[in-house]
Amino acid sequence: MTVVTRFAPSPTGYLHIGGARTALFNWLFAKHHGGKYLLRIEDTDRARSTEPAIAAILDGLSWLGLPWDDEVTYQFSRAARHAEVALDMLAKGHAYYCYASPQELDEMRAAQKAAGKPMRYDGRWRDRDPKDAPADVKPVVRLKAPQTGQTVIKDAVQGEVTVENAQLDDMILLRADGTPTYMLAVVVDDHDMGVTHVIRGDDHLNNAFRQLQIIKAMGWPEPVYAHIPLIHGPDGAKLSKRHGALGVDAYRDMGFLPAALRNYLLRLGWGHGDDEIISTEQAIEWFDLAGVGRSASRFDMAKLTNLNAHYLRETPDAELLPLVLPRIEEKIGGKVDDAGRERIARGLNGVKPRARTLVELADNLAFYARAGAPPISDEKALGILTPDARTVMAKLAPALEPVASDWNEKAIEEAVRKFAEANGLKLGQVAQPLRVALTGSIASPGIFEVLAVLGPAETKVRLLAAAA
Asked: Would you state the pLDDT for residue 306?
């Protein structure tokens, strides 16, 4: 048997973090078993489904590195097929027309509520002759569900779960206007797409009992269900925006790397011993449903950020450069020329260990981007460039010229130390204004590293600008 999984989001908003984890688990399970991972857009809610939301989902999955196999399936376009199955069930006696009017149904529910009973359809048209149907009511098609016994799901995560069939009513398959319901559409699509494993959030577990009844009525193969626990916030409450329940695009904007986010989502509810840093190759090799826990996992932004810092350090400079350059250009409000790009490339490795996100990396590299004096907006930094400090910078510029032919960190440090000693200054009295003059900030990579990256000509330009 070829394993086939699917991710089936509704395009009513962004690809949220819980959906991204569901997609990841489906993708990994399919890859682990050499199978297929399919994408279905469940766009039957026409009032809420939007093209921008579809685009955001496709873009989010692509950025996250979870490419799907085959063409995307759009559920709404398959409405005729869904209706065909409902009519087939009618012909086989597994479904029936219900002519109960909306007013009747409201009265039925009100009576049930008043009696303290569960509010569900009472089957009043289950065995009635359609000849008795009122002429002014368009019927719906309802499933003729079993009324006795149990429906059992052997869930790959939750274990064996059972519901009494008496608790389930005859749900609607086709509405009065002939459009299929979500429950019917999901089952038909999963069958037609050859889905063997339905891996989704455990908020869908109750749906599975009803969907399984349709599957059995049609005599179709039952998929393996795996309902994974939801993600909670650090406080144990349902994950919300205040916890970080944002769209995947927001994490991209915040400067997280796809590999880091995949690794973090993998460890939310799944484990492999004490392993925390897990490459994509290892994840594909190790992932199986047995490793998914039954308890809700807790989202921790600090942990994600620290994990991202690890991935930043491990990512080769050549791969980081095209990711960070657009952010630097956005920060400085213009294009980086070839010389600036070269300085950024030389300085990247020294800045990486100090950054946790691409945003921080861009912030820490921006002073390399443009030639000339960097802008100084921080009051503390401006306060360091006193008239005396500016005089020191003016003197330092020519003092560094002898090492221009052998411009490296060791030679530069030695020259600066000799300059400080010759002028009766402590090293800090030179290094602090030097840092501000070269970077525009009181915080930067090691000052001698900065000098080495800038080069003798650019260093002189910035020192003289500070002196002026």
From this structure: 97
- The pLDDT of residue 111 is 85
pLDDT tens for 223-273 read: 999 999 999 888 777 776 666 557 899 999 999 999 999 999 999 999 898
352 catalytic per annotation: no
Positive or negative CA dihedral for 349, 350, 355, 360? negative
The first and second tokens of residue 314, run together, are: 């491990």
Stretches where the chain sits below pLDDT 70 are 240-245
Give me the catalytic one of 92, 117, 154, 241: 241
pLDDT of residue 243: 61
- One-letter-per-residue 3-state SS of the chain: CCCEEEECCCCCCCCEHHHHHHHHHHHHHHHHCCCEEEEEECCCCCCCCCHHHHHHHHHHHHHHCCCCCCCCEEHHHHHHHHHHHHHHHHHCCCEEEECCCHHHHHHHHHHHHHCCCCCCCCCCCCCCCHHHCCCCCCCEEEECCCCCCEEEEEECCCEEEEEEHHHCCCCEEECCCCCECHHHHHHHHHHHCCCCEEEEEHHHHHHHHHHHHHHHHHCCCCCEEEEECCEECCCCCECCCCCCCCEHHHHHHCCCCHHHHHHHHHCCCECCCCCCCCCHHHHHHHCCHHHECCCCEECCHHHHHHHHHHHHHHCCHHHHHHHHHHHHHHHHCCCCCHHHHHHHHHHHHHHHHHCCCHHHHHHHHHHHCCCCCCCCCCHHHHHHCCHHHHHHHHHHHHHCHHHHHHCCHHHHHHHHHHHHHHCCCCHHHHHHHHHHHHHCCCCCCCHHHHHHHHHHHHHHHHHHHHHC
Quote the pLDDT of residue 245.
59
